[in-house]
Specification:
By secondary structure, the protein is an alpha+beta fold. The chain has 15 helices and 12 strands. It folds into 2 domains: 307 residues, no CATH class; 128 residues, no CATH class. Helix 2 packs across helix 4 and helix 5 runs parallel beside helix 14.
Length: 473
């Protein structure tokens, strides 16, 4: 972890610590320039405008160097993310949670790798987009993505021509998003990342193979579920297999029968008495203390358990029913111990908000969705570089108390006269689609105000001169 020296010295030490993963010494300088370009303010964080910001006197040469680094050079995304993790995690302190989520990037056309008509959380609807799955490690103070992979739809996975043009590796095959997430979790465990409680939304919690995989890894988890998820009420479970008749194979599958069936999570929550609902606060938000009404009870999942030989284990059903709502709005399943207090359940569940902060800043401030190439390698390289730059900002925040809430004005080198990058709002070329800055909730999830924007860095006033120097070098 880099802690000493001026801002420029810390930045240099950080990128040097990570540059050793790039497999070639000549990539260290463009790597530092790319990270600097991502941190500097600017409307677009694609290669051309970043080249103009970091090397205004040699835009063409800088463009070529940055393009080769992100789109052509064969370095390991996993190694870079591991190096960033090694530098940043000591500053985060004890890890509370592992957060699984996916994020979408609206795209035109059909040639960018993985683009398809699918649900895009950024737009809140089905549209043409790319979707990536990530694993972040988090606590109440900060979070860092440690794994990131593009979801490749079946139409892409089974199309040799498009795979070849986009440079999709031969070993990459179709996997569902929950399967990708489980693979990321297993890799993190193999790499020795200290585990936290796994948090995921209903897109993952609805997949019982995902929950079963977490149980098999002996990991604690809290996952969202749909209101119609079937559950066995407290004290109930599926019937045992039928008695053996003496002929054929002995029956092994669990049973249901009329009058002995699971119920929907929403109906189960609504059947609880008024005294079961308690008001719980979990953190301070931008507009004050966040609080709502919650209830929790022990249940067993009922999803397709008639195909199982053993019932699912007992889990917590956590439900949220805000004041003024006609019915419960959210439901989760958790395999935390039976003696877990309700406030602890709520606090862990609500920690998932950190992933929204990750994606807000990675997209709005660091240009995660601004890569303009079409290939598999470039898509992942750009994301890894964004995460590496984000790691440096996390380190800076850990060093300085944010006593001054005002955003620090970064000084960007003057651009060449008349420079107009492609995609710029002031460029004379055809306008591109507007960049969506607010995440829309998927169906079934209540809308919430976007997280409060934070400055990229919040140093003490004495650091202002150092920052100005850093941003103009």
């Amino acid at each position: 972890m880099i802690v000493a020296g001026t801002l420029e010295e810390r930045f240099t030490a950080y990128v040097e610590a990570l540059a050793g993963t790039l497999a070639h010494a000549d990539r260290a300088q463009p790597f530092a320039a790319y990270c600097r370009g991502l941190i500097l303010p600017g409307e677009r964080k694609s290669i051309e405008p970043m080249a103009a910001r970091v090397r205004p006197e040699r835009v063409s040469a800088a463009h070529q160097s940055l393009h080769h680094l992100v789109a052509k050079a064969a370095w390991s995304d996993e190694a870079l993310l591991a190096a960033a993790r090694h530098q940043v995690l000591p500053a985060l302190g004890p890890i509370t949670a592992w957060i699984i989520d996916d994020t979408g990037f609206p795209k035109k056309g059909r040639h960018s790798v993985g683009v398809a008509r699918q649900y895009c959380g950024q737009l809140g609807k089905q549209d043409n987009c790319q979707v990536a799955v990530s694993l972040s490690v988090a606590n109440e103070q900060a979070s860092l993505p440690v794994a990131y992979r593009l979801y490749l739809p079946q139409a892409w996975a089974n199309d040799p021509l498009r795979r070849h043009k986009a440079g999709v590796p031969e070993e990459v095959r179709f996997k569902t998003k929950p399967e990708i997430a489980l693979e990321q979790i297993r890799d993190a465990l193999r790499q020795g990342v200290l585990p936290g409680v796994v948090l995921a939304d209903a897109g993952y919690g609805a997949d019982m193979d995902f929950q079963g995989g977490l149980l098999g890894l002996d990991l604690a988890y809290v996952v969202g579920i749909q209101p119609n998820t079937s559950l066995w009420p407290p004290g109930k479970s599926p019937l045992p297999a039928k008695p053996w008749s003496g002929r054929g194979r002995p029956p092994t599958r669990l049973r249901r029968q009329a009058g002995h069936e699971p119920v929907a999570a929403e109906a189960l929550a609504q059947s609880l008495p008024a005294g079961a609902w308690q008001t719980v606060t979990w953190r301070e938000g931008s507009k004050g203390t966040l609080a709502s009404r919650f209830a929790a009870l022990r249940v067993r999942p009922g999803h397709r358990d008639y195909d199982r030989r053993e019932p699912w284990p007992e889990l917590w059903l956590l439900a949220e029913w805000p004041e003024g709502e006609k019915e419960p709005t959210k439901h989760w399943l958790a395999n935390l111990p039976a003696d877990t207090p309700l406030p602890r359940l709520v606090t862990l569940t609500k920690l998932r908000w950190r992933i929204e902060r990750d994606y807000q800043e990675l997209k709005q401030e660091l240009g995660l969705g601004h890569f303009e190439g079409r290939g598999w390698r470039g898509f992942h390289h750009h994301a890894s570089l964004c995460i590496a730059a984000y790691g440096f900002l996390i380190l800076e925040r850990a060093l300085f108390s944010p006593a001054d809430p005002a955003a620090v004005g970064f000084q960007t080198p003057a651009l060449p006269q008349g420079f107009r990058p492609r995609g710029s709002r002031t460029a004379p070329t055809a306008a591109r689609a507007a960049f969506h800055r607010h995440l829309a909730p998927p169906p079934g999830r209540a809308a919430r105000p976007p997280p409060r924007s934070l400055p990229l860095l919040s140093p003490a006033p004495s650091q202002q001169a150092a920052i100005a120097s850093f941003m103009t070098q």
